[in-house]
Amino acid sequence: PVPDREEPPFLGRRGARTEAHPAVRISPVYPTRCRKLGHEGTCVLECGVDASGNVSSVRLTVSSGCPDLDEAAVNALRAARFEPARAGGIPVPDRVTERLRFVLLPR
């Protein structure tokens, strides 16, 4: 699984604002059943991140088409740790969108 990012920081009236971003790469476990059946897909999830970098909520916004892949993506995002968003250097809550792709590599 490979996360896609869209994340240009922007300048607000009070100084630089940065978005929350994963502290480490988010790597969901590829469900064995899906791997055997050749299921691939991309999940789009929205999550809330608190000012400490903890995930406070996760919502699947676009399904991969496979419930098991969707569940693996949601579980991975719930367990993720983020660098919090900052406004003027101060950590603040944020909402981020993550795309997690499940792709089988040729053997």
Give a short overview:
The protein has 107 residues and is an alpha+beta fold. The protein contains two helices and ten strands, in the order ββββαββαββββ.
Q: Which terms summarize this structure?
A:
four-stranded antiparallel beta sheet
Overview of this structure, please?
- The protein is elongated and about 50 Å long.
- It contains two helices and ten strands, in the order ββββαββαββββ.
- It has a four-stranded antiparallel sheet with strand order 1-10-5-6, with helices on one face. A four-stranded antiparallel sheet has the order 2-3-8-9, with no helix packed on it.
- Mean pLDDT is 89; it is low at 6-12.
- It is an alpha+beta fold and 107 residues long.
- It has helices at 32-37, 67-79, and strands spanning 2-4, 10-12, 15-18, 21-22, 41-49, 55-62, 82-83, 85-87, 90-92, 94-102.
- A hairpin with a 2-residue loop joins strand 2 (10-12) and strand 3.
Helix percent band: 10-25%
Label the overall shape: elongated
Strand order of the largest sheet: 1-10-5-6
Structural class: alpha+beta
Uncertain runs:
6-12
* Rg on CA atoms, Å: 15 Å
Distance from N terminus to C terminus (CA atoms, Å) equals 16 Å
Query: H/E series, N to C?
Result: EEEEHEEHEEEE
Q: Biggest sheet: strands, sense, closure? A: 4 strands, antiparallel
How many strands appear in the DSSP assignment? 10
Question: Averaged pLDDT, please?
Answer: 89
As a percent range, the share of strand residues is 35-45%
How many helices? 2
Give me the secondary-structure topology:
Elements: E1 2-4, E2 10-12, E3 15-18, E4 21-22, H1 32-37, E5 41-49, E6 55-62, H2 67-79, E7 82-83, E8 85-87, E9 90-92, E10 94-102
Antiparallel strand pairs: 1-10, 2-3, 3-8, 4-7, 5-6, 5-10, 8-9
